[in-house]
Amino acid sequence: xxxxxxxxxxxxxxxxxxxxxxxxxxxxxxxxxxxxxxxxxxxxxxxxxxxxxxxxxxxxxxxxxxxxxxxxxxxxxxxxxxxxxxxxxxxxxxxxxxxxxxxxxxxxxxxxxxxxxxxxxxxxxxxxxxxxxxxxxxxxxxxxxxxxxxxxxxxxxxxxxxxxxxxxxxxxxxxxxxxxxxxxxxxxxxxxxxxxxxxxxxxxxxxxxxxxxxxxxxxxxxxxxxxxxxxxxxxxxxxxxxxxxxxxxxxxxxxxxxxxxxxxxxxxxxxxxxxxxxxxxxxxxxxxxxxxxxxxxxxxxxxxxxxxxxxxxxxxxxxxxxxxxxxxxxxxxxxxxxxxxxxxxxxxxxxxxxxxxxxxxxxxxxxxxxxxxxxxxxxxxxxxxxxxxxxxxxxxxxxxxxxxxxxxxxxxxxxxxxxxxxxxxxxxxxxxxxxxxxxxxxxxxxxxxxxxxxxxxxxxxxxxxxxxxxxxxxxxxxxxxxxxxxxxxxxxxxxxxxxxxxxxxxxxxxxxxxxxxxxxxxxxxxxxxxxxxxxxxxxxxxxxxxxxxxxxxxxxxxxxxxxxxxxxxxxxxxxxxxxxxxxxxxxxxxxxxxxxxxxxxxxxxxxxxxxxxxxxxxxxxxxxxxxxxxxxxxxxxxxxxxxxxxxxx
Length: 649
Prior knowledge:
- 47% of the residues lie in helices and 8% in strands.
- It is an alpha/beta fold.
- The strands form 3 sheets. A 5-stranded parallel β-sheet has the order 2-3-4-1-5.
- It is elongated and about 110 Å long.
- The relative contact order is 0.07.
């Protein structure tokens, strides 16, 4: 199709001058009125325009170009500017003027042929084109073919175009434009110079809209223009079309604000997203549902809103992770400040968890016949989600547990009966053929109920649980685990740190191992856990020495200088004086004494747990209620479940 219509040429000439309307009196939309006619006027595609200008300047104009990119980013516009630059009188010139001469524009139009690839898909259309390219241009230097949506051509049409495209006449230039380059055969791609047009960034698009509003003698808030730019998804034409719609709605108003744009476009204001994310972080499901109710009443697309929520949560994660997000987050300065303030009050794992669940919810809402109900249930799930531990910390805990349980004859190799469960209770088996043992019942008279004991049975009710006093580790266990070193620092260091400074209170009566455990309990960070696995070989003055099995994974992690220096710095800050932390491999003479098996914090904790489980098990079996049930039903106690929280019936 040849664009030789003079009315189109006149409209394009008047668009170069930014006139309000053509001579016919009809309204020309912003996307056409402010269509660029020079390379410098193209927004956000400098990597394309500069290359084309340099190619014209040095005389290296290719015979075939392929412009790819999303809609409305300037592919066809740049193709027309290139045609004007090549056919400019006295040219080619890299800076074609914005001519207002209708006759000159008409002469250009005769030799610039624009073809719609969607309606010229057959091989016959390509055959006509092959016949036409043999003729010289009517008035200009080049005959230029601009084919939009070239990916719509059929396979046979592409094959018919191959030879002409590879070796066209010297007076012919092809410019192809497409939004789906993956549909174009590789044989065509190899014969073209490809230029990928980018989506225009939101800040740059906002500046462009602001300049156009100055020409239109209108004003708008930056937040309103940012909302239009985000809705345009990087397309200049889409942004101008949306701005046209907003201007028509805001006729007679002094300024365009964000609520007005949100009302016109049917999208959620950024403040609504901030309100919803604040409700989710505060775990306030009622407030989140109230936001959905308002959106539904205003007629918003809830599926689109779910996608906007995903993008908003993504921005929170990026701002929380990056010190300077830069261009990673499309937001105004005020919005960026609010994103920083909101993300600072939440942990990074919590934000990532909200993002991952919101992605799944958005995908389900897009396919659901009940988007409101699906969105409400998803928000309730997000608000009530329990924050999860980081994966690295969980892996480290599992590795430590496997090392303790997997070492033959080592600590924790044989877990205590029922150890690690929640609460304490005794399970009574069915009556057996043998008579129940009444040795303990006959040997001791009834006594007061022991603390923290309960026996659930199949018949009858269990007695109410009795609150147990705090269970402490046997003093002998701690004493035997303590190395024979002096826990006191040097004379010039304080023995007891100031509590107001966040230091660990230290008692002279505490053993070095107890002091080391108390100190580790006050520290935070993923690097601390590996130091609880090391055996405390000595604490003399300011020097703490830890030992690990030679060649072990824990030794490699503890010997890391950065990790060791960081933990030593934390210990010094808590104690109030400088600490030197040394790590080495255990020697054979370090393991002569049997007490050395208790010289790590983890081993001490495991010993205390097993001792507590053993004591509570004995107390549960000796409990009067247990003995009475055993005697009455002729049963035997099969297992006892113990735990740190006391008893659960």
